[in-house]
Structure formats: C-alpha cells, structure tokens
Amino acid sequence: MINYFIKATRMKLSIKRVLTALIPSLIALSPITHAHTIEEKIADCKCDQACYTDEVTDLKCSGGNFSFKSHSLPDESHTLMLGITGNNQQFPSKHDMEIRLPLNPKKASRVTQTEPGAVGIAVNGVPIFDPSTQGPKQSSGKPVSAASAGELDECGGHAGRGDDYHYHIAPKCLIEELGKEAIDDKKQAVGYAADGFPILALGWFDKGNDIEAKLDECRGATDGAGQYFYNIEYQGEYAILDCLSGKEQRFARDNWTHRKNSKGKEIQGMPVKLAVSQYQQTEVEGNICYIMSGVLSDEQLVNTSGKVNRIKKLEGSIFYCSSSCYGQFIETKKARARGRTSVFDSQTAGCPADFIAIQDNDFLDYRN
To answer: Please, is 53 exposed, middle or buried when counting C-beta atoms within 10 Å of its C-beta (0-12, 13-18, 19+)?
Structure first.
C-alpha cells in the first residue's frame, strides 16, 4: 500500500510537469472563461426615472438605498386576468405601496431559497412573487405552482388574497411594453429582487443575448463590470429567479382597503374553476366596480329552490362594487350533499339598476 502510494504520487508529479509546460499553449488556443460571467455590461439606472414606467412615482436615492411608490397595478393596456382557469375570485385593486432596496447589494455567503410570497418588484411597481401558490401543498410536500394550477393570466400574474396584482412568472406584458431597445439593447432591468439585485430579461427579443448556459443556481450571472443580476427565462416555465444570492430585505410596505360583505366581514375568495373570458374595472356612482366573466366548470351548486345541481358548464360573472353590491361563490354547509357544495353569495340592493353584472347573469340562479 505504501509503495503504491509513492508510485501514484510520482505519477501525479510527472503529469503536473507536463500540464505546466502545456498551459501557455492552451491559453493561446482558448481564452479563459469564468463561469456565470458575461462580457457585456448591464444598465445601472436604479435612480433614473426613465428606467421605470409611469406607474412608479417618488423615486429617490439616498442613504445607500433607492425607494419609490406605486399602486401595484400595471399599465391599462395589459390584459389582466384573461386566460385564468383556476380562479381565486380576487380582483386586482389599487394598493399604496412603498418600496426600498439597497443601491449596492452584496452577495451572501449562501443562497436563500424562496418561499411563497414576494421575492421582488417590477419596474412598473407590481410585486414579483415566488412561482408557487400559497394554498395547500402536494403530497410531495412542495407547493403547487400558480402556473400549473391555471391561476395566471396572459401577462404572467393574477390577483392574490389581498386583491393585490402580482407576477409569479415572467411579466410578459411588461417586457413587451418595455420593448427590445430597453430589454436587449440597453440591457435595463425589468425589476429588482428582494436582495436588491436587478432582474433582466436578456434574450427575450434577441436570442443572441441568450445566457441560459451561463446562469448559476439562482438564475444569476455577473456582467463585465462585476454587477450581479438575475435573468428571466424567455420560454418554458418563464422562471424569474430560483433563489436569492444576496441578503433578503424587508423591502415593501403595503396599504389597501379590504373588500367587505354586507355583514362587515372581509371577503377572501374561494378557489373555483372559472375560466375568465372578460375582465373589466369601471367607476359606478363613485365606487370602483370589478366584473369578471367566464365559464364555471365542475362545481356542485345549490339553486334558489334548495336543489343541489352538479354543474358542468355555466356562464356568468362575479363582481364587486360595495358591501351592498357584490356576488361570488362561497362554500355552504347547509346542503345535504357529498363533497364541496357552493352558493352564489350576493347582494344587489346597492347595485345601479343598469349594472351589467346583474343582467343576464346565470350565477344569480344560485344565490343564497
């Protein structure tokens, strides 16, 4: 054993001498590349209002931080809620958000795995969430992704439990709004992660900027100036980031008025299979009214006569204007039937007479 070890050591020394002699030639033939590094330099414009959309206001840079305010809603041209099939019966509403993040974040000694909830903010002031839902976990112990649950719209987002609109995957409509010049030519950020590092979408328009092979475990890379950043996936799962490389910050303060029912209790939507075909938000008699229309599938409902019906397909609208004008599905324990049984919990006394959501709405046949 001792002799073998000596021979092996001598062999390693000989190989080392050969490699040492060859290294200069190898360097001349192939340039040395650093893992997770790109030659190009990304834009550094955290303090430049031109790098944000009009939805972001009060941008300030001081004390080593940058901060701004937003209402948590994207541009009106974005097609919110369309394409959703797994519906939480929540409406995108105005929030008063204040964001603060470090100007010069540092990488931590170890990465932080993301959990269901906010992991960043987009440059239009809309929060970015972890891909998973905040609902029940699978048998594997992992939460269900919002995308696989059919909860996301064509823009990559939806309204959460607090009627807060946010993204779970690539903010597609925002990226298209920003355009090729900002995304691939100027290499500006699409958003900022909870640790302060920028989030880009290189390769979205120009596949010559594809850096998928250079990303680390968190979907991060370092540019030619040493700036670390995350990069959004332009296909497949449209992932934003898989973990945080820096120290996670408590970066957002959020204030909003919760929807309430006729009894003064806060309304939180129950998940249903409602495929959204139309969403509109309008002002009626001083109230902001939300109407979401589509087809309800595979739901057990109790009609106004007390009869339980298993619904395969039913067209209608859920809506909210005020505590005296709303309608959405809730579970009922009164019906004698196996499995979850629901009713359409509604109040229409405070609705305008010509309010579209209470006209030709088949969901009202199952009101409580």
So the answer is: middle
